Amino acid sequence: MSQGEAGTRQDHDALETSRARYGLVAVVVSNVVICGVAIVGVWRLHGDSAVIVGILTSAFTAVSTMTTAYLSIKAISNTAKSIALGDTSARTMPPPVQAAPAAPAAPAAPVPAQSGGQASPSGG
Predict the structure, then answer these.
(1) For the chain, which residues make up each domain, given as ranges?
(2) How far is 36 from 32, CA to CA, in rounded Å?
(3) How confident is the model at residue 67 (pLDDT cuts 50, 70, 90)?
(4) Helix axes 3-45, 49-84, angle to 10 degrees
(5) Distance between CA atoms of 35 and 85, rounded to whole angstroms?
(6) With bands split at pLDDT 50, 70 and 90, how would you rate the model's confidence at 51?
């Protein structure tokens, strides 16, 4: 890798770091603002429960949507970056595990010897 390529890589990494940092700041600030507006809305309504439930539900939906969108976009961006750079270490499957060889079949049980002598082939 030449010095020019190394400098470009460092600039790109710095850009990605600042994007991640300011993206997270934007999400946190917007979530705080949404919560603040919801609190002010609940406070100004003086206990009208039906409207309070609507405000809190909307605030929860907005906060969860903003956070999920940021995290999803960040995950996809990181995946695309690793694919573009050819980093396959996180995506490779481990080699398949070889099955252990089957145990040899157990020998047949020995036939007990007959007591009282040998049997004749004629049966008598």
Answers:
(1) 9-79
(2) 6
(3) very high
(4) 170
(5) 39
(6) confident
CA distance 114 to 124: 15
How much is the pTM? 0.57
First-residue to last-residue Cα distance in the chain = 95
**Phi, psi values for residue 3, rounded to 5°:** -65, -35
Say if residues 56 and 40 touch (Cβ distance below 8 Å).
no
Q: How far apart are CA 25 and CA 32, in angstroms?
A: 11
Virtual torsion, Cα 43, 33, 77, 2, nearest 10 deg: -160
**Secondary structure (DSSP) of 74-87:** HHHHHHHHHHHTT-
Q: Is the pLDDT of residue 22 over 80?
A: yes
Decide which of 26 and 14 is more confident.
26
